[in-house]
Every structure is written in C-alpha cells, then in structure tokens.
Design a protein that fits this description.
Pfam families: Pyridoxal_deC (PF00282). It contains eleven helices and 13 strands. The chain has a seven-stranded mixed sheet with strand order 1-7-6-5-4-2-3, with helices on both faces. Helix 2 runs antiparallel to helix 9, helix 6 runs parallel beside helix 7 and helix 10 packs across helix 11. The structure holds pyridoxal-5'-phosphate. The site of pyridoxal-5'-phosphate (PLP) has 15 residues, from helix 4.
Length: 468
C-alpha cells in the first residue's frame, strides 16, 4: 500500500449530485458536490453524504472472489449484530468495559489451552490489532530477554533474529523498526521455507530467537517447528547457546490444532516461548484482531508491561496502540463459543477439502505444476509447466481479473528468484460451487493464452502485493 500523499490536482469545477439524493424536493434541494481533496466548507445532509460514499465504494472488489487475502470476508449476521453493539467500546478502557476485558482474558485462556501451554493458568497473552502487532510484541520480548541475559555486552553487541527468507513482511518491519539484524535462511531447490539445520548454523551469542512459520505465506507450507527445536537442542548441547523459538502461527495456529492434531508444533515443545495468530484469518473474525501468547510470565519481561491509571483502574497492558476497537475481541469470543472445537474442525476441514480439490483440478488441466497441494494451510501455489512458453503466471492473473477473480502472481525470493507463481488462499465462504466457477473460468481462458506468441503482461502490470 502506498504511503498517501496530498492530491496535486485541485478539485474540478462544481458538479451537482443526483437530484434524487435530496431530502425532499429534487429541484430545490439540489446540492453541489463537495470537494474531495480538502475539507468541505459546510455540512451535507446525511442521506447525501451516505449515497456519495456508498456509491464510490461500489468499485471496491468483491471480497468473496479475492483469493489473495487470508483475512475473513464472511461472518454470520449474529456476529455482525454483536460487533455493531460493541462499536463504541474501546479495548483499552478496561475499567469502563470490564466485561469486554473479561472476554479477552477468556480468549487468551482458551488459546493457551488449545496450544497446550504446560500450565494454562501461567500462560500470559493479549489481543492485538493483528499478527503484525503480535509479532512486534513477541519480537520485543525476545530482544529484551536477550538484552537482560547479555547485560554485560549490550549495548555494543548487535542482536539478530534468524528466520526463513519466506517470512511475512511484519518480520522485516520488526527488524527494521527495532534495529535487529535479520539473518535469513534462503530457499533452495524445492525447499521453499526454512531449513532447521541452516537456521541453527546462523545462530550465535547475539541471536534473540528463531522464528518458525505455520505456515508460509508464499506457498501455504508448514515450517518444521519440531525439527527446528530439535536442531536448536542439538546446538545447545554442542555450544551451550539456548535460543528460544517464536512460532508465527498467523494462519496455521488456528488450523493445525483442529485438523493436524498429531503434529507437535506448539507449547508442547519446551523451546517454543511464544506464539501468535491472526484472529481475523482462520480465527474466522472480521479484521482486525490478533493474539500473542507467552508460555509463562518468565518469557515476557515485566518491564515491557505498562499500567496506566488515567482511565480509572490499573490493568496491565502490553500493546503498541492505546485506543483500539473492542468489537473484534467480542466477535472472537462469540466465534469460540459458537463453534467450539468440533465446529472449528468442521469449518477448517471443509476449507482444506476445497483447497485440495481445487489444487487437483488445476493440476489436471495439464498447463500447471503445483508447488503445494493445499494439504497444510488450505493454500496452494502453482506455476506454469516447463513446456508452457506462450504465457506466464502474470498473464493468468491479469486475465482472471477480467472475470472478477483476484489471483495474485509473484516471484519468489533468494535463491529461487527464477520462480514466479500463482497462489490461491481458500477461506471459509469459498465454497465448492465457487471453486467450480473458478476452474471453469480458468479452463475457458487457456486456449486463448496458449495461442499467444509470448507472455504479454508488462512489468508495470505485474501484481506483487500478496503479503496478506
Ligand atoms: C498475515 C500474516 C502476518 C501478518 O498478520 P496481520 O494479521 O495481517 O497483521 C504475519 N505472519 C504471517 C505468517 C502471516 O500469514
């Protein structure tokens, strides 16, 4: 998303709004359209203001056809009602809204249990605006713990964080904003995420932690968290270095507990000190809510927790924001109650079934090679088969957009910059019926694409914003 700038062009000469928009009389209530790039001089009747904004937003995409985003685009009406009831509640105001604060606490307790904290009562956590904020908080805790352990050398020594090059952009932000050196394990061959041994080799006495991703935004694969912990156990035996792991479970921490129960990736691994997830991804809540949890209070330095009394009360908080909407946290609690474990299992299994089915059918078209199959996150990446030379993934993305589908195409990072892929993110609400329509649209395009003499999408039209 660009950083917004002011508008160079002044507002054009006066225009009138639709006469129908007037309060009563279409002729005498005729209103001049307000300027768009400076605050209008006077007020407008609410009906007119509403129509103007409403009409402009019609050109936003249809979110249900957006296969780029991980973020929830459908909730049931009751959730919408509850959220509307809570739209005035400020999450920070825990004294004014003690019940909202209590629902947040219960959500943390449920997640601590779901992620197998050895002592759920000892686990600590909080809601955030999303995984990005949760990752900032988790990273800050890692950095502060490292600084405490190395008080004799810090400042002076430069902290580093080890992770796969496939990390979501929030980790680049964390390293940039908090001045931590990113140490990135590159992709290699058919390995599109972190390699545990290579990660352990990058660690030294200034490593604040290693991030493992469940799962990767690039291709939906789970990183091998248990193997990563084992490699770090081995490192500790060899060198004495005790490096903690943070699991970025933005998507997978709300998938794996329900449909990959045999996989051990969470607080059952003693080396996992913190976990985050996006409530607004597979937590099934509208944006923006995320969660950050620490195994115990020992993993979250007390000095990072603030207590303020200016709103009355004295509730400890760990957050980057101060004021923040409470509705999403309420909606998360509602969804936990509404679905329970069995409900989440059914929803996530259905989404995975849709993803796997769609991946298979795309593979059967013959023009594409799958990198992943939708059997970890319900997400898969595919590219054109080696013999396809008349078109590329950017052409497919551009042409599918003509049918309303947002299907992102992008290149991979080092050492697979040669690889460009398309990615499909299946979410609750992307049904088998919709996936049938998707395959129909894609198959109908193929004969035309095959007749091209060469790929046609120019660099400037190449979509790259997939970092959801
Ligand atoms: C989406 C995502 C994030 C960022 O999450 P937001 O909730 O959008 O802030 C971080 N890490 C991973 C792995 C993600 O998929």
């Amino acid at each position: 998303m660009p950083l917004h700038r002011g508008h160079e062009k002044p507002d054009e000469h006066p225009r009138s709004v639709n006469p129908f928009f007037g309060e009563t009389n279409p002729v005498s209530d005729m209103v001049e359209a307000p300027p768009k790039h400076r605050l209008p001089d006077g007020p407008l009747p609410p009906t007119i203001a509403y129509e103007l904004v409403h009409d402009e937003l019609m050109l936003d995409g249809n979110s249900r056809l957006n296969l780029a985003t991980f973020v929830t685009t459908w909730m049931e009406p009751q959730a919408g009602i509850l959220m509307a009831e809570c739209r005035d509640k400020n999450m920070i105001d825990k004294d004014e809204y003690p019940r909202t604060a209590e629902l947040e606490r219960r959500c943390v307790a449920m997640l601590a249990d779901l992620w197998n904290a050895p002592d759920p009562a000892a686990a600590v956590g909080c809601s955030t605006t999303g995984s990005s904020e949760a990752c900032m908080l988790a990273g800050m805790a890692l950095k502060r713990r490292w600084a405490q352990r190395n008080a004799d050398r810090y400042p002076g020594a430069r902290p580093n964080l080890v992770m796969g090059i496939n990390v979501q952009v929030c980790w680049d932000k964390f390293c940039n904003f908090w001045e931590v050196e990113p140490r990135l394990v590159p992709m290699e061959g058919d390995r599109f995420h972190l390699d545990p041994r290579a990660a352990a080799e990058l660690c030294d006495e200034n490593t604040i932690g290693v991030v493992g991703i469940l799962g990767s935004t690039f291709d939906g694969s789970y990183e091998p968290i248990a193997e990563l912990c084992a490699a770090l156990d081995e490192l500790q035996e060899r060198t004495g270095l005790d490096v903690p792991v943070h699991v970025d479970g933005a998507s997978g921490a709300m998938i794996a507990p329900f449909i990959d129960e045999d996989m051990v990736w969470d607080f059952r691994l003693p080396r996992v000190s913190s976990i985050n997830t996006s409530g607004h991804k597979y937590g099934l809540v509208y944006p923006g809510v995320g969660w950050a949890l620490w195994r115990s209070a020992a993993e979250l330095p007390e000095e990072l927790v603030f207590r303020v009394n200016y709103l009355g009360g004295d509730m400890p908080t760990f957050a980057l924001n101060f004021s923040r909407p409470g509705a999403q946290v309420v909606a998360q609690y509602y969804t936990f109650l509404r679905l329970g474990r069995e409900g989440y299992r059914a929803v996530q299994q259905t989404t995975r079934d849709v993803a796997r089915g769609l991946a298979e059918r795309i593979s059967a078209l013959g023009d594409f090679t799958l990198l992943t199959r939708g059997d970890q996150l319900p997400v898969f990446a595919f590219t054109t088969a080696p013999e396809v030379t008349s078109y590329d993934v950017f052409d497919v993305s551009r042409r599918m957009r003509e049918h309303g589908w947002l299907l992102p195409a992008y290149t991979f990072p080092a050492n697979r910059e040669d690889l460009a892929v398309l990615r499909v993110v299946c979410r609750n609400g992307f049904t088998t019926d919709l996936s049938d329509l998707f395959v129909e649209d894609l198959s109908r395009l193929l004969p035309e694409l095959r007749r091209q003499s060469h790929p046609l999408t120019r660099d400037k039209d190449r979509a790259t914003s997939f970092h959801h």
